[in-house]
User: Fold these one by one.
Assistant:
Number 1:
Amino acid sequence: MSRYLSDVAVLARKDLRLELRARNTVPAMLLFVVAALVVFHFALPEGSSDLAAKGLLWVAIVFTALLGLTRAFVAEREQRLIDGLLLAPCDRSAIWLAKSLSVLGFLVVAELVALPAFALFFSGIDGATVAGVALADLGICAVGTVLAAMAVAGRARELLLPLLFLPLAIPIVIGGVGASVAAEPARYLGFLALYDAVFAIISWASFEYVVTE
Amino acid sequence: MSTSLRNNRVPLLAGLAAALLCAAIALTFFYAPVDEDGLNQKIFYFHVPIALTAYACFGWGAWKGLLHLWKGKPGADLESYVAIHLGVIFGAMTLITGSIWAKVSWGHWWLWSEKQLVLFLVLFLFYSAYFMLRFSVEPGPQRANLSSVYAIFGVVLIPVSFLAIRLANQYIHPIAFNRNGPQMAGSQFFTFCVCLAAMLALFAALYNFELAGKRLDARLRELRELLT
């Protein structure tokens, strides 16, 4: 068990180090999410309710995550890094867990900017929204990592990932928006936790088949 | 693995499906009573069996995908693909018949408060992306694995989405329409069962027909490669 976790830690550290050196993904996600919020301000007519803005916050989060996920396996495919990873004496699901954790890290950094920016531009954010975002992040990264690995195997790549990801993200958006706007957010948070658990298990179990032939 | 149309189950299943469909149409229009909703309630006998058959297709596709990943059963990937292909067709028919029913009953082509219809829209989008995935990857073991994993994600998504859409209705819309209004009479239930059997038989016939064609195709390609 500790062997597995140390494999995961090494692999995740590799992704973080690559990002720190090349700075490809996180700055793009930060700029994108702020730009999206500005666009949403102008997309909402004068006098729209805060509820509509809260809904758009979730659109911004899902699309920012999509941006990060599109980049997640680029090095693995373009530099054939994936062959090295598959030869390494570690469990294949450790690759999934490490990649999910690094994508989660990027997404959290983007949200550390996005949520205060949202509070500044639109309306204040309560604890339930933050909890909803945290739970949704787990599900987005767990499912998104498997789908990103699928998408890079195809010819269409960047085109394919949103098509695969958005239908699976609809329940996350429903749970997240419910947690931010409903009077009693507990059941929506519970639903998000359920989604995370269910999809984390099948992603963990199926990742091996996605990367091996 | 039979490749010939003659010595497999296709003609038998096609005959069964045709007979059951004729019986279903006859029962729907001449046997089942017209209830208080009027004649437009008859679409129930087609819409709901088609929807249930679509679920059966998706479930069958995921089961074949699981067999491919778990046991490495040869040909299971093709069977999974054919089942999902038919599932998308039945899913599209569910959307169309549901839309017609909504228009006739409530005056709108689309209602976000109709949970089953919204669920089918999500599933339709999800499984349409299946084809994008499948046809952007080179044929081979990797494509089979990816398709199977995606098919299994699909059957997990069905209950999760259903739960989510039920939750969403509580803040987007009040639940305005309850389809279980009139209790089903015995004759109506019998008609419904025959319609469901007819749709399932239609699925089985189309499934075997498409599978036979695809296998014939693959065999032909192998022979051509042998010749060159």
Number 2:
Amino acid sequence: MDVATIQSVLGVYVVASPAVLLVLLGLSALLGVPMSERLIARLTQAAVVSGLLAAVVILALMLARDVRIVPVELGHWVVIPEQHFHFTLKFVFDRLSVPFVILTYVLCGTVGAFTTVYLHREPGYGRFFLLYALFLLGMIVTSVAGTIETLFAGWELVGLSSALLVAFFHERPAPVRNGLRVWGVYRVADAAFLVAAVALHHVTGGGDFQGLMGSGPWPAGQASMSQGAALFVGTLLVIAAAGKSALVPFCGWLPRAMEGPTPSSAVFYGALSVHLGAFLLLRISPILELSIWLSAAVIALGLITALFAAVAARVQTDIKSALAFASLTQVGIIVAEIGCGLRYVALAHIIGHACLRTLQLLRAPTLLHDYHQLENAIGSHLTHEPGRWERMVPERARTRLYRLALERGYLDSFLNEYVVRPFVLVFGWCDRLERCWTDWLAGGQSRESDRVPPPLEGMEDFT
Amino acid sequence: MTTHATSPPALPGGSVHADQFARLRQAIAHAAHLLPAQGPITAFIHHNTLHAFEDLPFEQAVKLGAKTFGCQPYLSEDRYRQEFARGRITREDLWSVLLDDLGDRAEGLIGCLGTRFHLRLAMLHYPLRTAPSAELRWLVAETDALQRFREETSPQVRHRAVEETRRWVMRDLRNGGGEEGATATRRIRDVLSALFDRFGKSSIEQWNDAKWEAFCLHLLWRICHQGVHGVERFTEPPTPPLRHRDVLLEATGEDTDRLVNDLLVRFCAAFLDQGFANWSLPGRDQGLFAAFDLLYRQRLAPPERWLRGLPRELERLRASGADPLESIAESLELLGVSASEEEEFIAQTLLSLRGWAGMIWQMETRSDRAVRPAPSGSLVEFLAARLILERLAVRHVARGSLGFDGPLEEVRKFARAAVPRHESVSVDQRAFLVFQLAQLLGWTPPELFRLSKPEWSRLVEEVEAFPPLERRRVFHLAYERRYRNRTLDAVAIHDRRRPPRTVAPRFQVMCCIDEREESFRRHLEESSPEVETFGTAGFFGVAMYYRGAADAHFAPLCPAVIKPRHYVLEEVVYTSEKSHRRRAKTRRALGTTSRRFHVGSRTFAGGALLAGLLGPLASVPLIARVLFPRLTARIRQTFGRFVRPPRATALQLERVDPEPGPTGGGIGYSLDEMAEIVERLLRETGLTADFARLVIVTGHGSSSLNNPHESAHDCGACGGGRGAPNARAFAQMANDPRVRARLARNGRTVPRHAVFVGAYHNTCDDGIAWFDLDRLPSSHKEDFAALSRLFEEARQRNAHERCRRFESAELALSPEAALRHVEGRAEDLAQTRPEYGHATNAICIVGRRSRTRGLFCDRRAFLTSYDPTQDDDECSILTGILQAVVPVCAGISLEYYFSFVDPTGWGCGTKLPHNISALLGVMDGAASDLRTGLPWQMVEVHEPVRLLMIVETIAEAMSGLMDRQPGIGGLCRHGWIQLAVLEPHTSEIQVFSNGRFEPHRPEAAELPEARSSADWYRGWRDHLDFASIAGAWATPARRSAPHSESEV
């Protein structure tokens, strides 16, 4: 067996190990044979550690042999010759995906170990790890995707597991509502992504990044498409990235996503999931390069997000929201860096930021303990003197800015009012139209459900 | 909002409204009383969750509380039935409680169907199913409810019912006959003909048993249905909701509170923030309403539809010059709330965001406990702001979802009209209850058929007089009765069994009364017969504001009810002064850097710099702390040693100035005060003679990571603080020769050989720290070496016993491994149960330890030392003890009770999504009401029973004490705690029930005996029964203790 084969096998293993974990946990849930906490923890541990080892060995081999790209092709899965369409499963290990895979495994592994203790005796223990496996698989597939359709598949898995983890405590209404919100935003982003993928196929005749970016391995690739096409596809992909990374105007979902258990907030929103948009932009950076307008838009988007989030973070009074906006600040900066073409800087920034934020989020419940220690060390209560910037802003404007920050930039309100509401109105109108039509056809009331009153007799329990 | 905001009614003003304002103020004060009384979470003080209803008897109070707060008063019926099934509640308990509860009415007959007692017993034994009518109809039609008898029905009963039906049908009914009156015959004939059609009358002779059973049940169901039809209503119809929000929620499914609370949560957190956010709320210093006004008056606002009228409304209020109270009056008027509804409406409105409203009230009334308190009147201002928002939200929902655009005051009427309310009771539900009872109690169809309408009416009334809530109450009483009887039996038997004492004490250990110290003391006693232990409230009578060498502020260390007068400072000894100053400087530098790092990482540039440069380094502590918590903690401690204040410190305990104060000569106590403290404590604990060579005073506390509720594990008698300084101060006072001289003058000689040593027990990692060992006389070094070995042994065993409760610890752990395990827990970032705190607490024993020494109480008993033979006739010592012990223990017990029976209602739910907000408390997830009470992870192993106080005294003395002390008497008389007395000279026990003491009738004759605690608890996770531990029996001799006559 030559080294290339070994690399391919390892490459498949990197993706297969979370997939096997997902299948095992999923089957146990599906067949109604619950596993013990210990078994779940062991399986997760085994999957993560072996996957990480495989990734590290690939890295070592690549370094030793000075290979910059290792493609692993699993063939065409769907081929429609008339439409010139083929769904190709292809993984690529290069300078972008290998660090990202290792980062994912390290952080997910740490958080997994944390969670096995943190969620001990929680009824949703198995469910959490099922979603965790789903998330891990999604992250890995996204990271090593060699074609845009493979990336999309991973992207969807991450979206699904994130929304379900936000709604983890489904016995309370708030997590479910916020989970739905996350899901809604992801839908918009995914729609943009899907259109972009189709367009890319149309333009380049395939979704393979290698074909798309020319011959050079990342980050040296040169995209070969017209500027107009690049602008179109790029814009759609930027929208997709903005939804996933909670950039303006989709920021509203990030603080809302802090509904799940602390470790899921940490790894999913603080560290990995939120960087996925930035990762996508890195992956398609050759396209961004083609259009100066697109690059400018990405820089602007990043900077606006970063500035907004930095201001919002200053007024948050709870630790998790404060950390969410702090994360967002850095993601904004990272996106701006990508817009500037600083790809390695952005990659390093992502890795550093992810580690730092995971630690901070896992420590979030220790805040009071830490504050107490800091107070004792410093010898006084911790107060905030108004900073330089604050003193410069006139009083009136400061109040306005404060409210803007406290209400999270009104971004949710804007979306509600100018996107959601028109949608609801249009569909309400359609519904009324349909009712008229069916009533006319039925010659009377056509909907039985209208006549059924909700059961109101309460189950008296207290009286 | 527009139409009515622009034409508001004349603003109330002048003396005509003085009455109304006074009334409103009173209503708000009343409502404030209902709000959760939990202060900042950093100093967690356990208190009765239902403190607002403490002047009512317990059973009434929980019922009222459940209604007011929408929470569960007891465990669920199913839960109690499970306890019954596994023998935690026995048949005798149910019988006894039910008989007591019914009194003379127990034997009342219900028609010819049996006694009331049997009916209720059956309703307790068997789960009665009920459901909405639609579901019941489905159940009857689609399940085998009418095919087969319930499986609990005995074969005999089933056989009799089927046979009688068969005979009745075959003999009397088949051919249309029957001895009944004409109408009754017609009724049954209709039913029968329908049934015959269904079952095939022609083949009736060939029907098999199954068919007859089904026929019998069909007949029974129809007879029940006919019987309950037309029976009047006995219970009050549910009152229609009062708040607009509830009415609208029923009518539209839209929740106005969601809109209002969403905004108010953010605003309240910003207003109350104790310094977390970098920017504080503009205008905060001008008060809540002013800040609200300033923030929301701006024109540049989000396009939030329901909030559109807000700037204009605030503008208008400002122009009219209305103060918050006037605004409340106006809002109530606009909403159409009548004067009679006002009080209830205000209470419900404030309770709809009870956590934050309660915190505002706490910050306003207990401003001494907060860094940034709220100005007085904040709650009124909060209500004013809330009502303005509610008006807008109600208007928005009424218009949007109900299409109602009329005046606000008519919204409720309009919305109620939109929802038809069922005033009558459901026939199906009633019939189904009787139908099930008939199967269980063997009421046959012919018997029921013969009941007249008034008899049916009585039957239904009887059944409905014992609703689920009543059943749960009876179950709960039975649940408590079992534990009470077991405890009292065990105490009495153990006391009788106790062998005579032989060994003189060499060591005396004073601990806190805390039930977590019960096991620690037991293990100490087991490890050597030379150890004698005492329990006393863990502040050891030293109520003080204390500031350690490394602390920033003075913090109170005493029960929450006491406001200390004295200040005590820890100082580094002179020789280490220099290194202390250097280290303090280093600490400050490190602290400042660390803070910059924390804050900086959340900013724009600082965050980028830190994340980019230092971010990857964060993976090291991240992985290390998660995977190797104990090792990481060790390493951190090793490095921490370089910056910690030098170990050689001393308390500045002696005061120079005449008056105490926080600075200079005002710090400390005068010698007379010290003597008083020492004398008082020795008298209370009964340690007045036979002093051992070493007397250890052990304070306790708990340290854990990633735990916002950390302070709830600390010493309750120190007001959620750690009792180490108190123990240290006490030992120092008691060792002072001048103090001893003063004691001797009062006739309380402490011999020269007795040396006091302060110690600290960490209940989380079972660590022990000693204080001021440098001052230990060399004559006692050897004793101390022996003692510290005992302590080492005891803490391992204690850790071992604790580990049996932790599911993540193997049952087979060795004591050494157990100690390592609990040490790891305390340092684990991921650990949500560093310890179980006060969970399982159930008993409080006030009396001589010699009477309970060796009794295995499973860490469930608060143990207070008290020697009744040294007390006077007025029980002045006991009074002093109970004044401190009862509020603390009852508070802990009741808080655990409520947080367990309704973990999300009274407690704060699971810890997993908790999010620290404003440095004051926790929210669920991203934004929610401030959650008060205890988290599920703290209470999950608890058994919700009311505290059982066992006091060693005579019944008359206790009655007198309860009369003189209304606080203590009230708690006992109203049943918030259970009370029993143990006679000082015999093993007789009297139980306080129904307002008087009655002799306890023992149920058990035996109490198991085990060689050691470990022998008894080994291998068990669940609650354990009492046992005598023979290993602890060789109790030290007390020559002067005059209770030798009680020995067997």
